[in-house]
Design brief:
about 475 residues; alpha+beta; Serine Threonine Protein Phosphatase 5, Tetratricopeptide repeat; Immunoglobulin-like; Porin; 3 domains; eight-stranded antiparallel beta barrel; six-stranded mixed sheet; 6 helices; about 40% strand; elongated
């Protein structure tokens, strides 16, 4: 092959290679449109948290692509306001509408989402309802405070980690705040911490996000002017629609406490009075392993024959007064957990011996595989559960007999157990959380006996309260 032919082959290969490594973000407007579509599909399903998350991701793409002034970004802000309003955060909706109007003064709410309340909020934003802000950088030389309106702050997209991040804002004379502050939330946290800005001159405020918060991959923040009742009167961003700041440098975490999962260390400290821990849904590094211990009571619909060989003659509900559970779960992410649980029921009050035995049954052991899903992005609040396993459920019932001291027997159900449930989890601080569960289990009999235990089919339910610890 000649030199010229070889050169052509190399050129063709290079062109093909370049085409293959073209990043997916070459069409940022397409990415933004896709995220917005995904968000409004979540909105239509009334999953407002998921909608806001997708829209914030769309804003992050827009900022990286320098599309802050593009109408496509105005539409994202408008949708974010709609989602925030549906979630009950009117203030966040107002700020999002203000951001939309500053980009596209003629923007309108589509008929599919329009309501009188939303339209009023948009009209107020178009009228310049006191919260306007300019995206123009703050100019130091010859700063004319008389020309400043509302609150102005240049949004910061990226910053190095490990040290404090300077924050500046201008506040016009048309508002009179009691304080101006930057509110920030580290990656994975649910609450914002506050760092006050100090007034410098007639209209300039300066401060910083502390270096202890500048770690991880990103941080959410907004700058707000607050009145005496701590209500936002002007802002750049909001709690429902924060600015997304990407941290460009990885910083080694230092602590005396070891990370039991990754063999390294995890940071334990405070930011603005709030705790940063590796604990259960407390911000910082999410836990990977969760151990829960609970106790409560149970009941069930029973039928068939008791373990003492008596017929259940009256259709009834039996009880298992004491039920304990121990669960070990792996956290796939903040919302999804997969784990195993041991259930131990203790029938109380029986006075009829089990058939072929000297006494009545004393325990009801079972092992379960559980999958849990928390409805909130924070990992707290309501969660649903599916479970399957094997074992025995036992319930105590009264017999239709007049024999004194021989009128209380036990009915066993199983050995195949299938069920579902609903629960609640709430962080308590540190690595601990409060948990509550209402779970239902269907016991499916496979044959008449398991070993020496006479079994029936039926359904039971447990109500339990307990504590969880994350690692």
């Amino acid at each position: 092959m000649g030199t010229r032919s070889l050169a052509w082959v190399v050129a063709v290969i290079a062109v093909v290679a370049v085409g293959r490594v073209t990043p997916a973000s070459a069409d940022p407007k397409g990415d933004i449109a896709a995220k917005s579509k995904e968000a409004m599909e979540s909105y239509d399903m009334m999953d407002y948290d998921a909608a806001k998350k997708a829209l914030n991701q769309a804003l992050s793409v827009a900022k990286k692509a320098k599309l802050d002034k593009d109408p496509v970004t105005a539409k994202v802000y408008l949708d974010l306001g709609i989602a925030a309003f549906a979630a009950g955060d009117t203030e966040a909706a107002r700020v999002a509408f203000l951001s939309a109007v500053q980009i596209d003064a003629k923007i309108q709410i589509s008929a599919a989402y329009k309501s009188p309340e939303l339209q009023k909020l948009l009209d107020e934003a178009k009228a310049g309802d006191g919260g306007g802000a300019s995206e123009d950088p703050i100019a130091e030389p010859g700063l004319d405070c008389g020309a400043v309106k509302g609150l102005q702050h240049t949004i910061i997209d990226t910053a190095p980690g490990g040290g404090p991040l300077a924050i500046e804002a201008l506040v016009g004379g048309d508002i009179t705040p009691a304080k101006v502050a930057v509110m920030y939330r580290i990656e994975g946290a649910t609450d914002f911490a506050e760092s006050k800005l100090t007034k410098q001159g007639d209209c300039k405020y300066t401060g910083a996000i502390p270096g202890s918060a500048m770690r991880g991959e990103l941080i959410h923040y907004y700058v707000g002017a607050f009145d005496g009742n701590n209500k936002v009167i002007a802002a750049k961003g909001s709690s429902g629609s924060p600015n997304i700041l990407e941290i460009s440098g990885k910083v080694a975490l230092k602590s005396d406490e070891e990370d039991p999962i990754n063999g390294g260390t995890t940071t334990v400290g405070t930011i603005g009075g709030g705790e940063i821990t590796g604990g259960v849904i407390a911000g910082g590094k999410p836990p990977k392993i969760m151990i829960s211990v609970g106790g409560g009571t149970g009941f069930g619909y029973v039928s068939g024959n008791t373990e003492g060989g008596n017929m259940v003659e009256t259709c009834c509900v039996g009880n298992s007064l004491v039920v304990g559970t121990l669960e070990l779960a792996y956290m796939v992410n903040r919302k999804l957990a997969i784990g195993v649980a041991a259930r131990l029921g203790v029938p109380v009050g029986a006075n009829v011996n089990a058939e072929g035995a000297e006494g009545h049954s004393t325990i009801a052991p079972a092992g379960l595989l559980r999958v849990r899903y928390t409805l909130s992005e924070s990992g707290e609040g309501l969660r649903v559960m599916g479970q399957v396993g094997a074992g025995v459920m036992r319930n105590t019932i009264k017999l239709d007999t007049g024999m004194s001291g021989m009128d209380t027997d036990i009915v066993a159900q199983g050995p195949l157990l299938v069920g579902a449930g609903i629960g609640y989890i709430k962080k308590l601080g540190g690595n601990f959380a409060f948990v509550a569960d209402l779970s239902a289990l269907a016991g499916i009999a496979i044959g008449d006996k398991v070993g020496t235990t006479r079994v029936n089919s039926g359904i039971g339910a447990d109500l339990s309260l307990g504590l969880a610890v994350g690692f």
